[in-house]
Amino acid sequence: MDRRFNDLEGHDAYELLGLTEGCSDRLVNQAYRRQAREWHPDKNQRPSARAATERKMRLLNAARDVLLNHRTDYDLYRRACSEPEEPTADLQDDPWDDARTDVFPTADPNQDAGAGARQPGKGAADHLWNGAGYDDGSSRVPPHPHPPPWDQVPHGHGAFRQPTVEEPRTTPAYDRYAPPSRFQQVPQRNPPFPAPPYPSRQRRLKDSRIGCLWGTALAIIVFMTCLAVSFVVVSKYSFQVEVPVELSGSWVGSGLYPGTEQLYVVRISLQSGSKNGKVDYPLHSCTGTIIPAKLSNGRLAVRQQFTQHDGCVNREMELSRRDDGKLNLFREGQVVTLNREPDAGPFRLPESLVGSWAADGVELILDDKTVGTSGTVEWEGKKCILVAVASGDDSATLAVGGTNCKRHGIWSLTVRKGRLIADFKGTDGRNIDDWSASRKT
Predict the structure, then answer these.
(1) Is there a single domain that holds both residue 395 and residue 424?
(2) Same domain flag for 257 and 234
(3) With contact defined as beta carbons under 8 Å apart, do 375 and 366 qualify?
(4) Are residues 405 and 322 both part of a single domain?
(5) Which of 139, 260, 283, 333 is deepest in the core (most CB within 10 A)?
């Protein structure tokens, strides 16, 4: 079929458009538009019928294109297809037609000659070979050796009988003049990928040794990994130092973060013989665990662990007892003094200081309602947290700070004749001396 007519898929272009041969181009266009209106996919929205309509439209487009552009060739093609095809006289030759018959004697139909045997006749195979050539004087090579004697040819199908000593022949001779067999057996081919030979004993021993080495190496790696993990776990929980007696108790102090003006208050609680303690930063709401790690020359190295992650950093510190009964906290190159808190808990304000005091835009609200803090102070539009780091009968030392606080420092408070007298030392160098305030009612 011409490739230009492949889109018709074997259909007749005239039958698709409902036309006959010899129609005009105008009739072709009219018939196409009429069929397109009927079979357009937009008029058949059902999924089951949409594929059929799309195929119909492809055939209609192909039929119109053929009749408008290739009608002459298409008409010739239709006429050639409609004419009956005459049988050709060129038949395949039978290979037996050209076979030589003079070399094959006429066999006796009443006698089974057996496989590969040939009866005597007038063919070339029956000429006696005397070493010099044929009887006609030619010196050609004989086409094949003589067949075995008739008494050694078995009756029926099969191979020759057991050869004798005089005739060691085991297979029939090959006749180069014989025509090809009609039932030639197709030789069996070897598979494209033959099975690999069975490995030798040396190869198997080598493979087994390699497997044993890999297994041993893997076992050693697993053992060393487990040993390292066990060592880390044991060293973390078994080789911890106990808290000495001289460092037991609750301690509180204040210091500055390195490189900033931000004040912090740290409260440490240790118990003699314990392997951990508590640490608290009340100005920043950080609470965690303190773990002793090493004791050397009276210094106890500890590390902090916090459950919170916002602004709470795990740091390493050292603690040592002073002669005056206080503690020195060594942290990031700084030394912070820690005071021992009462056994009952954190420092509490004396009753004379509890209340609300205000003057010069500063308002102090002192109370012990919140554990760990001593009240708040409002100034410069911000509220700061107060934490007592020392207290007396009518006096107290408070650290002021917090995340939203603008001014950090230490307040020293005392009560004189019913008025609050205070001194403030700021971390930024701005101090307030002899600040006096009255109690708010």
Answers:
(1) yes
(2) no
(3) yes
(4) no
(5) 283
